[in-house]
Amino acid sequence: MHWLRGSVPHRRVQEMIPFLAELFGEQWEPYEYGLWIYDRSMLWPNGVRVNCHSSEERADRITKGKATLEIPGQCPDALGMAGIACPDEGPHAL
């Protein structure tokens, strides 16, 4: 996998951040700008990025309630199988 990019419901961004922090580290930084038409983002040192909006109203108006998640290819590679296992339920690949 060389790159993973997808959209997620904007209303789920705050729920997604702790999950991404668990996978990619707590060292993410918030920014008051994003790529393309987004006006906010969260960026991890390894290049994982969430692009989002400053409000739900703006998200609904501009991107039909969507945010984007970008995971560069080296990030999933660095996790290994243990990084994507579900520890409470056994090793299930995502």
List keywords for this structure.
single chain, 94 residues, 5 strands, 32% helix, 27% strand, disordered C terminus
Describe this structure in words.
- The protein has 94 residues and is α+β, with helices and mostly antiparallel strands.
- Helix content is 32%, strand content 27%.
- It has three helices and five strands; from the N terminus they run βαβββαβα.
- It has a five-stranded antiparallel beta sheet.
- β2 and β3 form a beta hairpin.
- It is globular, with a radius of gyration of 14 Å.
- The two termini are 14 Å apart.
How many extended strands?
Answer: 5
Number of helices: 3
Radius of gyration: 14 Å
- Kindly state the percentage of residues in helix: 25-40%
Oligomer: single chain
Question: Terminal Cα separation, in Å?
Answer: 14 Å
Give the structure's gist in a few sentences.
The protein is α+β, with helices and mostly antiparallel strands and 94 residues long. The protein is 32% helix and 27% strand.
